[in-house]
Amino acid sequence: MPLSPSSDHKNTQKIRSVCVFCGSGNGKNPKFQKIASQLGAFLANHNLNLVYGGGDMGLMGAVAQGALKAKGTVVGIIPEFLLHYQTGSLQPSHQIVTQNMHERKAKMYELADAYIALPGGIGTLEELVETMTWEQLGQHKKPIILLNIDQFWQPFLDLLAHMKNYNFIRSGLEVNFHTIKDLKALTSILHLKNQN
Q1: Is the pLDDT score of 156 beyond 60?
Q2: What is the pLDDT of residues 157-173, one digit of tens each?
Q3: 5: nearest Cα among 169, 170, 133
Q4: If we measure between CA atoms, which residue out of 60, 39, 47 comes closest to residue 16?
Q5: DSSP one-letter string for the chain
Q6: What is the pTM of this model?
Q7: Helix 101-111 and helix 122-136: axis angle, to 10°?
């Protein structure tokens, strides 16, 4: 059974580490990889630790490389069975090897003060939805952010609206998250100071 994140996080707590959920592939849109790399650099430039799935491929590799090139701290969390498939030559600042996927998610949630979802597949969606569920049930109040590059997340947003229309997302059980189109919006959401 997956562990739940800490429930004592307050909205006013300083953001120090950000977990990024994203695909181990690049997808068809070249903007995805470019923005993933920019996001990694953005976090590093604001002295925020990157917590991510530990791989070196696709958007995972791009966000990690972006942070490392900008001299940021990168914490890669990867289950043992993926070590030989997804690590390659990329060396995160810290690598945590877990026994399975459940432990990986629990550690990612534990170490992060906020969550950002880039485009990705089923794994990315599953990580995002579990984080949203915990927030909906009052287990944390950490910011959840969808980086909606070229409307990638629009079908998911439509599904949430559909669920709400059918009263499966009821009053008092709203899902609280931010949807943004570019990195500029992160400054206010994460309570960061502008840096020139």
Answers
A1: yes
A2: 999 999 999 999 998 88
A3: 133
A4: 47
A5: -PPPPPS---TTSPP-EEEEE--SS--S-HHHHHHHHHHHHHHHHTT-EEEE----SHHHHHHHHHHHHTT--EEEEEEGGGHHHH-TT---SEEEEESSHHHHHHHHHHH-SEEEE-S--HHHHHHHHHHHHHHHTTS----EEEE-GGGTTHHHHHHHHHHHHTTSS-TT-PPP-EEESSGGGHHHHTTPPP--
A6: 0.90
A7: 50
Dihedral pair phi/psi, residue 10, rounded to 5° = -100, 150
49: left (phi over 0), alpha (psi -120 to 50) or beta: beta
Query: Taking the CB of residue 61, how many other CB atoms lie within 10 A of it?
Result: 24
Q: Does the structure show a pLDDT above 70 at 7?
A: no
117 contacts 124 by C-beta, under 8 angstroms? yes
Q: What CA–CA distance (Å, rounded) separates 171 from 137?
A: 13
- 75 phi, psi to nearest 5 deg: -110, 110
Distance CA 75, CA 60 (A): 12
Phi, psi of 62 (to 5 degrees): -65, -45
* 17-21 β-sheet, strand order: 94-98, 74-79, 49-52, 17-21, 114-117, 144-147, 178-180
- The tokens of 34 are what? 């470019």
Domains of the chain are 17-184 (3.40.50.450)
